[in-house]
Structure formats: structure tokens, C-alpha cells
What does this fold into?
Amino acid sequence: SQPNRGRFAARRAGLEAASGDWVLLLDARVRLDPRSLRFVHDRLDAGERVWNGHVRVDTRGNPYGAFWNTLVELAWREYFDDPRTTSFDLESFDRFPKGTGCFLAPRELVLAALAEFRSAYGDLRHANDDTPLIRAIAASERINISPAFACDYSPRDTLGSFVRHAFHRGAVFLDGHGRRESRFFGVVVAFYPVSAGLSLVALQRPGYVAAAAAGTAALGAVVAAATSRSVADAAAFGALLPLYAVAHGAGMWRGLGLAVSGRARRGVRV
It folds into this structure.
């Protein structure tokens, strides 16, 4: 038991207290498929020691879940167009979905990755504790993924929780991908001048905001529909995309402030 200092600190405390050879990380919103551990049992004996869960988002009657599912499948379309048992290393790292919401690995390997963990933020509650951790593991061992090692994810189901989550993911995105090794590094660098310019235009031409939101929604729906998703999912993705973009962008600006203040505090200590 410890004061709430976020997911990273909680996991580190749990891993240090654990005594088993293997650890299975599961988030509160995640439920492991009951057949998954049976599947990986024999694979572990074959030397395939690290497994990232194949996440199935519960979209039934939930437009916010439909949005997240569509976003993830668009981001890693190469894998989701052909879900299969495969693996990735550091070179192919950014071509596959990943996360520690459902993650199985030797305990000592995860502890070693935690020891290497670095964040731009002084407050680790805002840190990206997925991507850097798994990237460190991928540097030494291949990460396996398969629909047979699967879990179900229960997404947020209210507008307020969706917006808060998008805002948080913006700060997390900067911490995880504001690094040269990420394929999204260029996107992160370009975001700040582009978003600042768009904000100035919006202040000078408020009428453009509604047109831009409508255009973004329409484009999002078309892109989602073109990837063979249901009409309802495409409509949900398009309708929520402008709101997500604003909240996620605000979170990235918040992350920039956290990074600057974190470096300032480190400078004071030195």
C-alpha cells in the first residue's frame, strides 16, 4: 500500500514485492480471455517469453469505444488487417500495437526495463509507461502478439470521461513519442507550430472553426468507412474526431509544460 502516485509507481511497487518468475500486467479495464494462458504456456517453453495482448475493444452500444477501436486499428492497420501470431523487434517496433494493459514477461526482464525508464516529466503520473518500457524490452527480446493471447477492454462510456482520457493521452503521447526513435517524432515536432498557427487563425476567423470541425468529422468518417468498418462505427469516429483532436492537442501542450517545468526543477537540483 502506498499513496497514489500513478500507474508506473504502482506497478514498480508490485513488481518489486512479487517473488514469481513471471508477471502478467492487467489494467482494471482489461479482462483476459480464459484460453490465453493455455495458449502461451507451450510457447514459453519454446523460448517465446514476452507476450503483448491482442486487445479487443468492447464497442457494443458505445460510440466512444467505437472511436478508440477505429483509431487503434487505423494506426496499426498492417497488423489488424491480418491479425496473426507473430512477433516484432526494435526495428519493426512501431508497426505493431502494444501496451502494458495486458503484458506477460519474465519478472526480471520487466524490472530491468523499469530501471532504464526515463520520462521528461517530474510527475510520473503523466508519464508514458507503455512505449518506453516495451521498447527497452524489444531491444533484447522479440515481443510476441497473437489473437490467441487476447483480452477484452471496457472503454469509457461518457462524454466527460472520453474527453479527460483524450487529454491525458495527449500528454502521454508526447512523453512516449517525443523521442527520435519513434516514427511519430516528426508528427510531434510539427504539431506545435501547426496547432499554434491554427489557433491564431481561429481567433481571427471564428467562423472557420465550425467549418474545420465539420470537415474533420467528414474526413474521419470517410477514412473509417474506407477501411471496411461498420457505418455506425464510422459515424461515431467522424463525430468524435474533432473533439478528440482538440482534447488530445491540449494534452500535448500540457505535456510540453510538464516537460519544461520538469527540466527546470532538475536544473535547480543540479
The longest helix spans residues 231-269. The longest strand covers residues 143-153.
